Every structure is written in C-alpha cells, then in structure tokens.
Amino acid sequence: MSAAHATRVLPMQLPAPNDPSVVTDGEQNTAVDRARPEQLPSPFPKPGGCVKYQRPSVQVLSLLIRVFECLYLINLSQCSRDAKRMRIIRSQESEQDHAARLIASQERQARLRASETSRQRELRLRSERSRLMAFRNRESSEQRNARLAADREVHALSRESENLIDRESRLSSQRVLSARIHSQETDEQREARLTADKDAHALSRESETFTDRESRLSYLRALSARIRSHETDEQRAAR
C-alpha cells in the first residue's frame, strides 16, 4: 500500500483507572456505567430546542368533538328555555312595566354606545344589518306590508316634530347611504331600481294635486341649484 492510500488509525481513548464514573463488577472485561447526576438527561429542552409534540389519536379527537357537541346542545337548550321564560314574563307585564323596561334598555344602550370605539360601532351596525336582512328575508308579504305601513306612520310622526337641522341631518345621512348602496349594485340591479323608481314616480304624479306638483317642482329646482353650485368647470361643460 502506498503512502497516498494509507489509512490513519486513531488511538482508542480508554478511561483512566481511577475514573469514578466507571466501576467494574469484579469480572474481567465487564463494566457497569454509572452516570453521575449531572450526566443524566434533563427533562427540559435545551436552549434553542423544542418539545416533541405527540399528535392525539382519532379516538381522542372524536371524543372531544362529542363533548363539545353535548356542551353546545346544553347551552342552546338553556338559551331556549331562558328566551321562552322571558317571552312569558313580557307577555304578562303591564303597559307601565313595558314602558319602564324599554326606557331602562334605551338608557343602558346609550351608555354602552357612548363608550364604544369606531371599530366596535362598525361591527355592531354590521351585525344589526345582517340580522335585520336575515329577518326580512323570512317574512311573508303580509308581514312586509304591515312593517312598511308601520314604518311610514313612525316616519310621519317623527318628521312632524323635526326641526330644520334634524331634517338636513336626516337627508344627508340618507344621501350618503344611498350613494354607498348604489355604488355596490350591479348593472341589472341598477336597471331594476330605475324602472321601479319610474313606475313609482308615475303613480305618484297621477294622484298629486296642483299644490303637490308645485311643491315637488320647487324642491327639484332647489336641489338642482344646490348640485350645480358645487360642480366644477369640467362638470358644467360636460352637462
């Protein structure tokens, strides 16, 4: 064997004769390694290490799912019983108790809404809109007509007592809401809305009196003048 292919043999490192970590049992060529306490493996992970995670079995996961389902059904049953009990209590209350409960509820909601942030307010309004849309999708034609009639009566009573500032605030809020809704509608929805508006305007103008017509035209002229006062030169030229 040449020197280039020679293999380097390292000497074996044997323990010292007086090493306390190695003790013989009295027999030749046998030894029992007794590790010192500082040489035992630590149950805690080393710095920078990680704990080995054992994936739970399918049986354990199925058992946990069944437990959560049972807890959900128990909670749902308790909520149903509480709601039924509250409906019974409210059906037996007098008009004074009903009015006092509504006033207390309004005051509590006012206190909560006074301390809520803009994010909390947006989440609350979004939740209310979703719940209201889901409720209206389930109502029948008779329920819808009754709701619209009640809304018109409430709006009429509210508008009789509003002042100029309240009216301007309401109209401004309605314009912002309408603009946001119109910006999200598709072409088909826009065409359907315009057609329905034309039909409603035609029916309304057939039954209007001379005074109603003059009031409507005066309002349209004031609205057009206000819109044109805010338009730019490009918008005026395009119009």
Jot down its keywords.
239 residues, mainly alpha, two-stranded antiparallel sheet, extended, disordered N terminus
Number of strands: 2
First and last CA, distance: 102 Å
Oligomeric status: single chain
Average of the residue pLDDT scores: 77
Reconstruct the topology from this structure:
Blueprint: E1 22-23, E2 32-33, H1 58-91, H2 95-114, H3 118-138, H4 141-160, H5 164-184, H6 187-206, H7 210-229, H8 233-238
Antiparallel strand pairs: 1-2
Your description of this structure?
- This protein has 239 residues and is mainly α.
- Among the domains are: 57-115; 119-184.
- It has eight helices and two strands.
- The chain has a two-stranded antiparallel sheet with strand order 1-2.
- Strand 1 and strand 2 (32-33) form a beta hairpin.
- The longest helix has 34 residues, at 58-91.
- It is extended, with a radius of gyration of 40 Å.
- It starts with 21 loop residues before the first strand and ends with a helix.
- Mean pLDDT is 77; it is low at 1-12 and 22-33.
TL;DR of this structure?
By secondary structure, this protein is mainly α.
